[in-house]
Amino acid sequence: MIDPDTSxxxxxxxxxxxxxxxxxxxxxxxxxxxxFFAFFDPLDLQRIGFPxxxxxxxxxxxxxxxxxxxxxxxxxxxxxxxxxxxxxxEEPLE
Length: 94
Prior knowledge:
With 94 residues, the chain is mostly helical. It is built from 3 helices and no strands.
């Protein structure tokens, strides 16, 4: 296996790294929640899962979107962690 030379690559700022994780996870959460709620009504899910708690349809959509965003954010974060070049974050020893 060829080991690429990563010493010449510029370092990304933490804001760029966060944006590289937040944007794709947001986009996938939008698509996933739109597809999910095209088939399922939040009020029907509320009656099945939490029959004693009354929620509005808007709260169901919001909670579903943020749960989808949390799941895709976790997946994107693990992917970003696995794609980091080894040894790039370590400071040189003096």
